[in-house]
Design goal:
The complex is a heterodimer of chains A (118) and B (108).
Chain A lengths: L2 E4 L3 E3 L5 E8 L8 E6 L6 E6 L6 E3 L7 E6 L4 E6 L8 E8 L5 E4 L3 E5 L2
Parallel strand pairs in A: 2-11
Antiparallel strand pairs in A: 1-3, 3-8, 4-5, 4-9, 5-6, 7-8, 9-10, 9-11
Chain B lengths: L3 E4 L2 E4 L5 E7 L7 E6 L6 E5 L3 E2 L7 E6 L2 E6 L9 E6 L7 E2 L3 E5 L1
Parallel strand pairs in B: 2-11
Antiparallel strand pairs in B: 1-3, 3-8, 4-5, 4-9, 5-6, 7-8, 9-10, 9-11
The chains are: A mainly beta (118), B mainly beta (108).
């Protein structure tokens, strides 16, 4: 079965960067886009962008352009999301999600809590 | 950017009754609309894609309808495990997915 296992919780200071990993198993990693979605405490879901694990091509939501970087390592079936210049309002749970054939988000990781605090 | 608006923000329904949740898009998204369920402390779970196709393992009491700009998620007979927050998402514009703000379904 499809599994997406994310890295553990992080605590960062404002201005720092964070890199979250998402290890995929149970399917062909390069066959499906990987999206990233975040959720601030008590808030809704916010789409951040996607990476095509086959080509490495990326597409970021306009809000995140210039400060998010999505990469992948096909040798270990792992996707990464790095967010730089962190601010306190970047405190959120960050999810990776495997896209289905149409672009909907079929499977989700368990989430990674990133706390930004001085 | 396509804006997704869900209504109501909170819906109070008794177990066994029917719940109807709405999602409106600011422009047509064809049938590229998904619904997700999220329980406290858990990741979202895909319920419906293509506006009306149930995801694998989703009970038949969940149904989706609509196309273009107006969509509905119906839960025919609420079970205790159905009380959660529900989100719609458009994926018609593959360069910019967007979610609705969510509807909290609570026990009346």
């Amino acid at each position: 079965q499809v599994q997406l296992v994310q890295s553990g919780a992080e605590v960062k200071k404002p201005g720092a960067s964070v890199k979250v990993s998402c290890k995929a198993s149970g399917y062909t990693f390069t066959g499906y886009y990987m999206h990233w979605v975040r959720q601030a405490p008590g808030q809704g879901l916010e789409w951040m962008g996607w990476i095509n694990p086959n080509s490495g091509g990326t597409n970021y939501a306009q809000k995140f352009q210039g400060w998010v970087t999505m990469t992948r390592d096909t040798s270990i079936s792992t996707a990464y999301m790095e967010l730089s210049r962190l601010r306190s309002d970047d405190t959120a749970v960050y999810y990776c999600a495997r896209a289905g054939t149409g672009g909907y988000l079929a499977d989700w990781g368990q989430g990674t809590l990133v706390t930004v605090s001085s | 950017e396509i804006v997704m608006t869900q209504s109501p923000a909170t819906l109070s329904v008794s177990p066994g009754e029917r719940a109807t949740l709405s999602c409106r898009a600011s422009q047509s998204v064809s049938s590229n609309l998904a619904w997700y369920q999220q329980k406290p402390g858990q990741a979202p779970r895909l319920l419906i894609y293509g506006a009306s196709t149930r995801a694998t393992g989703i009970p038949a009491r969940f149904s989706g309808s609509g196309s273009g700009t107006e969509f509905t998620l119906t839960i025919s007979s609420l079970q205790s495990e159905d009380f959660a927050v529900y989100y719609c998402q458009q994926y018609n514009n593959w360069l910019e997915d967007t979610f609705g703000q969510g509807t909290k379904l609570e026990i009346k």
